[in-house]
From TrEMBL:
Natural source organism: Christiangramia fulva
Name recorded for this polypeptide: RagB/SusD family nutrient uptake outer membrane protein
Intracellular or extracellular location(s): Cell outer membrane
GO cellular component: cell outer membrane
RagB/SusD domain mapped to chain residues: 334-495
Ranges of residues in domain SusD-like N-terminal: 85-234
Keyword Signal in annotation: yes
Amino acid sequence: MRTNKIKISLIAFFIAIFFSCDNYLNLEPEDGTVRQEFWKTKEDVQAAVIGCYNSMLNSPPGVSDRPLTDYLFMYGELRADMVLPTEYASNDERDITRMNILETNPITNWSAFYRVINYCNTILEFAPDVLEKDPTFTQKELDGFMAEALAIRSYLYFTLARTFRDVPLKLNATLSDTDNFQIPQSTQAEIFEQVAGDLEQAATMAKKTYGNNAQDKGRITQSAINAMLADVYLWMEDYQNAVKAADKVINTGDFALIPANNSWFNTVYAEGNSSESIFELQYSLNNLNPFYDMFLERPRYTASARVMEEVFGINFQDPTKKDIRGNRCSLVATNGYIYKYVGLTQYERKSRGTSDTHWFLYRYADVLLMKAEALNQLGMGEQALDLIHQVRERAEALEMTERNPTDKDGITDYILEERAREFAFEGKRWFDVLRNAKRNNYERIDLLLTMAAYSAPSDLQQSILAKLRDPNSHYLPIYYYELYANKALEQNPFYE
């Protein structure tokens, strides 16, 4: 009975919100109101929160943009060195990989992000009023829902700031068509400050557990928030707080790396929600992911040629020794197919009708390697290497030259190499390299240039390298329609 009430509330929420909001930033309602009569019971609030998660999986009916997870993959991988477009990729996708990016490229359209941000803002605006209307609704329950909305909004703004740099920051719900939609950008630093503050607040209100494994992995928890905070603080170059946030996850004792074995792939990826998982977007048989077409049926992307040999490595003396994360996990070595999202076991694929692999936002290995990155910047190279070795040993990674604990740049390279193996095709590679390149006023811009030298087509290499020497090129342009609709926006200087 309670489940049916939530389903009815969820339908009502989308009628109230989605069909009202589909203009600039997906904030402006056509009928001038967000239907306040929706917000009567705690089931209404819960349905609204669940709606935010669902909206991160697939676009609402009638909307032409891509699923948000598609953007997360493209923003984190296409400009990096581990993915190549195929004949099935669109010209827009190929242009991103070639650094030939124009403001008319629809991949730069951020509306899928702002749509969910507005859902979160609506919850934050209206949910507190339900306390007075529903006597069964407690402050603790409200706090949990508010934490989820704050954290989801924070993650989306964090992604936008890493992708576009300066973006509009709207923290209140759109309630009428008289709202101000001429909103200038906030700086990347301002976005990061807001996100860190919101996440710190959310961490004090969020649940530690829902008492159910799938919900613990698929909804915002204290650990998911602290994993996000570690990430945000790395970008802010606040390494002490990055370590503190990572330690809050580690010290729960709730997570563990799964040793390499024959069922490792199935446990971590095909089924998901393993002991390594902190936060995954939960595709299911009733809500299939977009990855089957992206990577298998008519694959738009394959692994670049260097991934198997140079990222994962091949032991030519003993080919049986291999990193478990490489062939038949991240990719198929013989044809470069990206396998992580389409495999059932190491040698059996899922079908289109069973394509339910999750999108992985944070795993335990991520927290360990983020902590290692922060420790290295704090001059604690030995401790950083210990954490890297934990991740490598469970994956049976091939032996590499031991790094000097006092060689900060060498350990940075080592961490990036390990993150490339551990999070191959999980939408992290471009952001990982950019974060480390831009530290200390682009002290390591060589990381971006070396990556481009590996991946750029030979006839475009010099052009791409020249572009990457301009830091403005590291961020995407604002989509032309947003500039037309909001005169307060200023285009990224690189694209003017």
